[in-house]
Automatic annotation (TrEMBL):
The keyword Transcription applies. SUPFAM superfamilies: Periplasmic binding protein-like II, Winged helix' DNA-binding domain. PROSITE patterns: HTH_LYSR. Residues 7-64 form the HTH lysR-type domain. The lineage of its organism: Bacteria, Pseudomonadati, Pseudomonadota, Gammaproteobacteria, Oceanospirillales. It comes from Neptunomonas japonica JAMM 1380. This is LysR family transcriptional regulator. Belongs to the LysR transcriptional regulatory family. One of its GO terms (molecular function) is DNA binding. Coiled coil: none annotated. InterPro entries: LysR-type_TF, LysR_HTH_N, LysR_subst-bd, WH-like_DNA-bd_sf, WH_DNA-bd_sf, YidZ_PBP2. Keywords: DNA-binding, Transcription, Transcription regulation.
Length: 307
C-alpha cells in the first residue's frame, strides 16, 4: 500500500460505496459517477491497496476479507471528516451557559449594559457577561487569544489595528455638562465660549488620547485648557459638579449623570461633531455562531434609547 501522501483520499468515498453496494452500477449512482468512471476508480483502488477488493462469484461481486476489514474504519474516517468540515452548530441562546467577555468604555457599561443584560436575562438566562475596560491590548492580543470576545464603544477616530473587523455601532451627539451652581455658563455655548472655559477631558485606556473633539479643535487651530484628564466619565462628571470646568460627552451619558449628580446639560457649539462608536472583533472568530449572536444583541441597541 502506498504512503498516505501518495494515496488519493477521494477514493475512500468510492471504496465505501463499492464495498457497501457490491455492485459497480449502484455504487456509481450513489456517488454520481458514470459506470465507466466507477470501474476506472475500482482499478485504481486495487492498484493502490494491492488487493482485488471485489471478487465475482456465483452470487455476484463479493468483498475480500481485506475490504471487509477496512470498511468500518473507512466509514468512521469519512464520518469524522464530514463532522469536521460541516458548518458550526448553531448557537442556542436559551440553552447556553457560555461566558462572554466584553471590553468596553464606561459609556457602554453605564448606559447600555444594564438594559442589554436585562434583555439577555429573558432570552438567555444562563449566560454570563464579564466586563472589562478597554486597554491598550484589548483590541489586539486579548481578542486574538479569545480572552476578550468583542470590544464595544471605541470611537471611529481612534486607532484600531487594520486586521480587525470594525463595525459602526452607535452614533450620538455631544453635549456639555456643567455644575448646577455654575452660573457663568448659560444654556448654550459658542465656539469662543467653549474654548475659554476649563475642561475635564476624557481619555480611554488604549493610549490614544486624541478624540473627535480634539480633532475638531485642531482643524480650527483652537486650544482648550484641560485641568484634568480622566479615564472615567463618572469621575469627570463629579469634578465638574465641584469646579467651574465643563466636560463634553455623549448625550445619553450626560442624561444619566443629570439624574445622579448636581450637574446640568449645556448645548455645545453647533459645529462640534458627534461621536460614532464601534464594535470590534477578531476575524479568527468571525464565523463563530455564539459571537454572531452576541453582536446581534449588542447591535439591537444601535440607536439612542428614548426614555
Amino acid at each position: 500500500m502506498k504512503p498516505l501522501r501518495q494515496f488519493d483520499l477521494n477514493l475512500l468515498i468510492i471504496f465505501e460505496a463499492l464495498i457497501t453496494e457490491c455492485h459497480v452500477s449502484k455504487a456509481a449512482e450513489k456517488v454520481f459517477l458514470s459506470q465507466s468512471a466507477m470501474s476506472h476508480a475500482l482499478n485504481r483502488l486495487r492498484q493502490q491497496l494491492d488487493d482485488p477488493l471485489l471478487i465475482r462469484t456465483q452470487n455476484g461481486l463479493q468483498p475480500t476479507p481485506r475490504a471487509l476489514e477496512m470498511l468500518p474504519d473507512v466509514r468512521e474516517a469519512l464520518q469524522l471528516i464530514n463532522r469536521t468540515i460541516a458548518p458550526s452548530a448553531s448557537f442556542v441562546a436559551h440553552k447556553s451557559d457560555r461566558t462572554f467577555s466584553i471590553a468596553c468604555t464606561d459609556y457602554f457599561e453605564s448606559v447600555i449594559f444594564p438594559d442589554l443584560l436585562k434583555h439577555l436575562q429573558i432570552i438567555a438566562p444562563n449566560i454570563t457577561l464579564e466586563i472589562e475596560m478597554i486597554s491598550e491590548h484589548a483590541s489586539s492580543t486579548r481578542l486574538e487569544n479569545r480572552q476578550v470576545d468583542i470590544v464595544v464603544g471605541m470611537d471611529t477616530t481612534q486607532k484600531i489595528p487594520a486586521h480587525l473587523i470594525v463595525e459602526q455601532w452607535r452614533t450620538e451627539k455631544f453635549v456639555c455638562l456643567v455644575g448646577k451652581d455654575n452660573h457663568l455658563v448659560k444654556e448654550s455655548l459658542s465656539v469662543e465660549q467653549f474654548v475659554s472655559l476649563t475642561h475635564v477631558v476624557f481619555s480611554d485606556l488604549t493610549g490614544d488620547t486624541t478624540s473627535a473633539i480634539d480633532n475638531w479643535l485642531s482643524s480650527q487651530q483652537l486650544p482648550r485648557h484641560a485641568i484634568a484628564r480622566t479615564t472615567n466619565y463618572m469621575a469627570a462628571a463629579r469634578i465638574v459638579s465641584k469646579t467651574p470646568a465643563i466636560i463634553t460627552l455623549p448625550s445619553q451619558m450626560a442624561e444619566l449623570f443629570c439624574q445622579m449628580l448636581p450637574v446640568r446639560m449645556v448645548t455645545p457649539p453647533s459645529t462640534i461633531p458627534g461621536i460614532t462608536m464601534t464594535t470590534v472583533h477578531h476575524p479568527l472568530f468571525n464565523n463563530d455562531p455564539a459571537l454572531k449572536w452576541l453582536k446581534e444583541q449588542i447591535h439591537l441597541f444601535k440607536a439612542p434609547q428614548v426614555a
